[in-house]
Design goal:
The complex is a heterodimer. By secondary structure, chain A is mainly alpha-helical. Chain A folds into two domains: about 35 residues, no CATH class; about 230 residues, Orthogonal Bundle (MetI-like fold). Chain A has 16 helices and two strands. Chain A has a two-stranded antiparallel ribbon with strand order 1-2. In chain A, β1 and β2 form a beta hairpin. Chain A is flat, with a radius of gyration of 26 Å. In chain B, β1, α2 and β2 form a beta-alpha-beta unit. In chain B, the strands form six sheets. A five-stranded mixed sheet of chain B has the order 2-1-3-15-4. Classes of the chains: A mainly alpha, B alpha/beta. Chains A and B meet through α4, α11, α13, α15 and α16 of A and α1, α3, α11 and α18 of B. Chain B: It holds the Pfam family SBP_bac_1.
């Protein structure tokens, strides 16, 4: 690799020792490419084990899945090449639109958690708040709780006849729906739980972001007579933007993978489930219920591409929103 | 990941890292599920001859119901009296993951030597040559299919070849709550009841006990315990060879039995039954009648209503019918110790082992004449109903890929139960989609 002879004398200038740590910054002026050439195969040796892991456990399966998406896969193995048939079938499958719609609806509702988390994080960050640590733990608990356990509790809360949610709604004169057994309401109900359990993580990330905003800015704003709300709008939100974008992206990726929460809250025999399928549930249905793993592989590729595209768009938008680079 | 975002460069890279990790993890999760399979297996073709008494072998016996472990251990102890050197390793996997595991093992030809198979999955494994037929054991007189319920023996027969005999069975009966009948002043069900009798009683109870939130009967959300039974009673069918039966007028009549009960308020609505399943309505004394399997007995032992419970045969439609199902022990086609596994298969099917199973009390053993222990297990409750039902029983409808059209049933039938669409339009639509799935099985 290091065949560029011209690079060598410069290294000799520095003496016979290896390039000391920290010298990288100095080298940067000379161009990273030159630095790379000088290091030879060493960096590859260091990242090798990691790359090997990624290749074996990530890249290779992706390539395999891509291959299988063009095949028909028997229940007990054995594949037949069928070209793009899985993909043409997917486009005409009514489950595509409905599961995509449900996933987007779910994601949209869970994303509402981001502004809520911003509000909660800044409240928790208020100077002089007592027991802040306790609140932080309380909000973070749902994030570490087991999804199935969470689901069981919410199932009871959502119960149409005996659930506490409808009882509370009844107190204010609202006749609540059968949350988890009515198509439409069901995905909303699951999204409410998703929002609730993602709050903790978003809040911790945002709280860390808040801590990094220098107090001097607020002091200066206060001297200028800015109200708390004005400070929040003009200092907190813009300086927090990188964290907000990060949290949003992670939330969207997580939401597109909705499966376990939906499965656990609704239950496999729920009559509303076929109309409340998420993309990943559709994949599961095709691969493990209908035993059509080739078709399932095609759905998996679709989900992969979708998440990739949505994330790319978000990162592009982030460049616009986040000004202080 | 949540390092100080004030430094935008570190945020950027953390962000990028997190995105890469999250995206790849998502794909990994999806892909891991699709790990590769192997070719097909042969073997275990040799005729069965009883192994030498001192045969030394290690075999694995896989099943899903941990509550039966005690009875199975007794069975194995009995088996070891005959074959002391065959070591049987028990492999219990909970129901939720059992089929994924067995399917993976079948793909890589590493199936346990002997394992439980149920009706809906049987044809899939038999038609792919994953399990060995018992032809030579039957020929040699080691297993006699006549000793087990005929309709259930048929369930484990594919293209004239027998692959196993049932180890246990369950049938469906009409469980009812005597107290609620007395309270509503309605006569209790009898063995001569017809659909009309049930419908009248259920509607009366629902209207008289409305104030208590009590309904007459829990409607049909599940095939095996509810609508399959009424479909057969109406003279219809679910799957007939390679054709769906849901387009038939008789089949649709069997479904209408339930939609009518839901529409008239004799039963809670579909949504109420989803939020709180029928068995819970019954055990908490909120429905008077419940179509339930013989296994429901276990749920009653500590239920609040246990002293008021009685059971009757299912009411007749055009004819009398109940769904019967049961698990079978099958030998893996590529078992390396096929002879030892078959010896155990034979032993487990024997009268002695079956009686042990029955006495342990959790199931109804399939061997005719070993079921007395079950009949006596709930004093005062006429559990014999479930044994007598064998005479008019119909096997659980299955095909090579039952799971595919079972999913269609769960997907389409709710529109009929909720009253959004007519039974005819739902039935016709289901028949069409199901026929397409059945055609793919060939």
């Amino acid at each position: 690799m290091t065949t560029v002879v011209g690079a060598r004398p410069r290294r000799a200038d520095r003496g016979s020792g290896r390039v000391a740590p920290g010298s990288g910054r100095g080298v940067r002026a000379g161009g990273e490419a030159a630095a790379r050439r000088r290091d030879g195969a060493w960096p590859w040796l260091f990242v090798g084990p990691l790359m090997l892991g990624i290749a074996v456990f990530y890249l290779w399966p992706i390539i395999q899945t891509l291959y299988y998406s063009f095949t028909e896969w028997g229940v007990f193995g054995g594949t037949t090449w069928i070209g793009g048939a899985n993909y043409t079938r997917m486009i005409t499958d009514p489950d595509l639109l409905s599961s995509l719609g449900n996933t987007v609806l779910y994601t949209a509702i869970v994303l509402l958690g981001v502004p809520i988390a911003v509000g909660l994080a800044s409240l928790l960050n208020l100077p002089g708040l007592r027991f802040a640590a306790v609140y932080r733990v309380l909000y973070f608990l749902p994030y570490v709780a087991m999804p199935t356990a969470v689901a069981m509790v919410w199932r009871m809360i959502f119960n149409g006849d005996h659930g506490i949610l409808n009882w509370v709604l009844g107190l204010v004169g609202i006749d609540g729906p059968y949350w988890i057994s009515t198509p439409g309401w069901a995905i909303t109900a699951v999204a409410i739980v998703g929002l609730w359990s993602s709050l903790g993580f978003s809040m911790i990330v945002l709280a860390a972001g808040l801590k990094a905003i220098p107090d001097e800015l607020y002091e200066a704003a206060q001297l200028d007579g800015a109200s708390r709300w004005r400070q929040f709008r003009s200092i907190t939100v813009p300086l927090l933007a990188p964290s907000i974008v990060f949290v949003s992206i992670v939330t969207v990726i997580g939401s597109f993978q909705l499966f376990d929460l939906l499965y656990a809250i609704m239950g496999a025999s729920n009559p509303a489930l076929p109309k409340s399928m998420s993309l990943v549930y559709w994949f599961y249905q095709a691969g493990f219920v209908d035993n059509e793993k080739g078709y399932a592989a095609a759905i998996a590729m679709l989900i992969f591409v979708l998440i990739g595209v949505v994330t790319l768009i978000q990162v592009r938008l982030q460049r616009k929103w986040v000004s202080n680079d | 990941m949540s390092r100080s975002p004030s430094n935008s460069r570190s945020t950027r890279s953390a962000l990028r890292l997190a995105i890469t990790a999250a995206v790849s993890a998502s794909v990994l999760a999806l892909v891991a599920a699709c790990s590769s399979g192997g070719g097909s297996g042969g073997g275990a073709d040799a005729d069965y001859t009883p192994p030498a008494k001192d045969l030394s072998a290690k075999i694995t016996y896989a099943y899903w119901d941990a509550t039966q472990t005690k009875a199975i251990k007794e069975n194995i102890a009995g088996f070891n009296e005959e074959y002391p050197n065959i070591k049987v390793n028990l492999d219990v996997t909970p129901w939720e993951t059992y089929w994924t595991k067995i399917q993976t093992q079948a793909s890589s030809n590493t199936l346990p030597d002997l394992f439980w198979l149920n009706g809906p999955n049987f044809q899939l494994y038999a038609s792919n040559g994953k399990v060995a037929p018992i032809t030579s054991q039957v020929k040699g007189g080691y297993i006699d299919p006549k000793n087990y319920p005929e309709s259930l023996v048929k369930l484990y027969n594919l293209d004239g070849m027998q692959y196993g005999v049932p180890k246990d069975f369950d049938t469906i009966g009409l469980w009812y709550n005597k107290d609620l009948f007395a309270k509503a002043g309605v006569a209790e069900p009898t063995a001569d009841w017809t659909w009309a009798d049930l419908s009248t009683a259920a509607n009366t109870i629902s209207s008289k006990l409305k104030g208590d939130g009590v309904y007459g009967v829990a409607g049909g959300m599940d095939g095996q315990t509810t609508y399959y039974n009424t479909i057969f009673q109406a003279g219809g069918s679910v799957v007939d060879g390679t054709k769906s039966g849901y387009g038939d007028a008789a089949t649709q009549k069997g479904l209408e039995f339930w939609t009518d009960l839901i529409k008239s308020g004799a039963s809670p609505t579909m949504q109420q039954l989803t939020d709180t399943p029928g068995d819970q309505w019954f055990t908490s004394g909120k429905v008077a009648m419940y179509y339930g399997g013989s296994w429901f007995r276990a749920a009653l032992s500590d239920a609040p209503v246990k002293d008021a419970v009685q059971v009757a045969p299912l009411p007749k439609g055009e004819k009398q019918a109940t769904v019967i199902h049961g698990v079978a022990n099958v030998v893996a086609a590529n078992s390396k110790n096929a002879q030892a596994a078959r010896a155990l298969q034979n032993y487990l099917a024997s009268e002695k082992a079956q009686k042990q199973q029955g006495d342990a009390g959790s199931i109804i053993p399939a061997f005719t004449g070993t079921q007395q222990a079950f009949a006596d297990s709930l004093p005062g409750v006429d559990l014999k109903v479930f044994l007598d039902a064998v005479d008019y029983s119909v096997p659980l409808p299955v095909s090579k890929n039952s799971a595919a059209w079972n999913a269609l049933e769960t997907k389409l039938l709710p529109d009929a139960f909720s009253g959004d669409k007519s039974v005819k339009s739902v039935g016709d639509d289901l028949a069409k989609q199901m026929d397409a799935d059945l055609a793919k099985e060939k």
